[in-house]
Write a structure and sequence with these properties.
Layout lengths: L1 H28 L3 H6 L5 H11 L5 H13 L13 H36 L4 H15 L2 H15 L12 H29 L3 H8 L4 H12 L1 H18 L1 H6 L5 H10 L3 H29 L7
Amino acid sequence: MARYLCQRILWASVVLVGITLAVFLVVHLSGDPAALYMGPEGTKQDYEVLRAAMGFDRPLPEQYGRFLVRAIHGDFGRSLRHRESSLPMVIARFPATLRLAGAALLIAVVLAVPLGILSALRRNSVLDAGAMMFALSGQCMPTFWLGILLILVFAVNLRWAPVYGGEGWLTLVLPAVTLGVWAMARTARITRSSMLEVLHQDFMRTARAKGLGESAAILRHALRNGAIPIVTALGLELGNLLGGAVITEAVFAYPGVGRLAVEAVVNKDVPLIQAVVFTVAAALLALNLAIDLVYMLLDPRVRLA
């Protein structure tokens, strides 16, 4: 276990270094960083002084080396718009995005897993067709369209929830439903496929022959043996929710990392964009490691080799 964790942490470190390289190259390919820092009001002399002060007049390998050293220490520079250190701003917003992603994932699990199990148990029935059609509709609806529709119905017309903001649990409901419905669709389909593979296995016939009830056999044997694909799907969905909540947070003006990223892109706030990308990437790497450890807990046949 310890050796496996060390290997994965080492690999994650290599991936993070690769991400810093990608961020560095994207910033330089998007234009002159000194011009972005200076703005349109600076003179040519000010521009040259800033280039020398920031090290942008040095060769690119040397610039990347300095950038990597600062990134390792958590220094991505000061936000051009907010005039604050970039990484603490992103970390301060990250819990809000984590709450939103967690609530959306909870909605997805509550809807998708029972729906997938029922579809597998009633294969090729009207219930199966209706459940998969519902799941497919959730996957086909764009999140921005569903979010606006929920705002019009439940916030504007019925006044059951706030239109925007992040204060109180009510402000979490509509954006969480928007993301949860989208995440539910693929999870329900994977749950159905996984359950169909294990429902007619020998261990299920043995459990029924020993007198175990159908519900207990499904929950204690079928669901556990078919859980690895479901956990994989949920892990991928949580990663998508963390990194892909940009549009939903912008629609609901939710104060998370996604909305901060949109503001950074609109304002060409390069240090803030770098900090957002690095933080989200680090969170996804930690999530992947957690999923691998859950595999071993669910199925003793899985060995961390």
